[in-house]
Amino acid sequence: MNRADPAPTDVPSAAGRAAAARSGPVDRSLRKQLLSWLVLPLGALLVSSALLSYSVALRSAKVAYDRALLDPALSLAEHVRTVDGRLVLDLPKAALDVLRVDSLDRIYFSVTGPGGELIAGQPEMPPPPSVVPDSHREFRYGTVSGENVRIAALFLPNAEGRVVIQVAETMVKRNRLAREILFGETLPDLLVVGVAMFLVWFGVGRSLAPLDRLRAEIAERSAVDLRPLDASYAPDEVRPLVAALNDLLRDLHDALDAQQRFTANAAHQLRTPLAGLRTQVELALRQPAPPALVHSLTQLRNATVRASHLANQLLALSRAEPGGHRPDALREVDLRTIAQDAAALWVPRALLKDLDLGFELSSATLIGDARLLRDLIDNLIENAIRYTPDGGQITVRTEIADEQAVLTVEDNGPGIAAAERERVFQRFYRTPGTEGDGSGLGLAIVHEIVNAHGASVSVGTGVDGGAGRPGTRIVVRFAAAGSAPAPAGNGAAVAAA
Questions:
Q1: Are the C-beta atoms of 443 and 316 separated by less than 8 Å?
Q2: What is the pTM of this model?
């Protein structure tokens, strides 16, 4: 099975870690940044506007109420008389009762003389201010009988001295008006804030839709899909980025294509000299020779066989890689027929190791490349023969299950540890401690072929394996012919059963 030392994991450099530590966590969401820069200032602006409107409206209402509160004081001032040397309020009781009538608030008043004596009104009224303002009138807040009131004070010059008329009104109407202004001003502004935030959110979402489309297109691609991205729907600001990505994809495609051609050409060129070398070695082994020379020639023949096998696997891997096979090679094929053809090659090989290689084949048609599928079956059977001990059992099955064409190769060999079942599909990877002379490419080829067909592969334990020899079961599932095929090239699904 594929074995080799795992590739080293990339580790960030010390400079990179230091830079990341200095920068700290950063919110890299463009949507959040746009919403933060647009919604928060807009919301603060609208809230400030609402508070300012509320303040202006409340001030205007207070001025209007204060003017209305001053009117009774002016009316009382017209009826202040000097009678027999004394200041009196010449106003009938009925008129005073009318003055104090209000549907919501209670009205209090007082008229005080130059010496602070009460001429008329309620004695619980607070004393008048000691300082006379320039306008001879003043508005202030106070308390009468435990109630908060608004007081209008009017200062009248008189021959006897200063007369102060105060009219106080409770705050019922004013508080009600404040609440009405608050709701009347802020609710529409809050509605505007909500609508504005929704429009900003919607606009940002629509503006970022091309980026989401670009992200989705890239996310749906496999690592080998290097077609240029479509820049026609991208905004002008994003098109340079798309162009740069397309340049990078083109360079990667050229590099991968050159690497693939090199591998295929090198493997192909190696096959002829290796075949000639093997022939010469086998001819030399037929000639009489000292034992030491026979041993050396035998070792050379075995090395030549391994090198030829490696060249063949490199060619198979090159065919399985994207670009190594043509889409027009896909046909409706039957796994049973391909497995039957493979039996003629592998049954004699299995008999050499006294292995029971059985085939349980049912028709399993799919749309695929027959040559690649033959490579897949060959590598799975070869893998099982190579690592199953003498006298073991290997079973190859093909069937239709759950609208899928299923290929199963099962043995009762040493098995693959659960921790290694995903890594064995890496190229040149060999499980530590595994015996044998495998190249580490068999299951890598299987993975590439599975990937090319949009299929899935899983590795599990064989049914008949005991504690010492758990066995291995490898199951490949294809979309059956007539069902919706999985998109090829999107990466083979590898599962550890």
A1: no
A2: 0.48
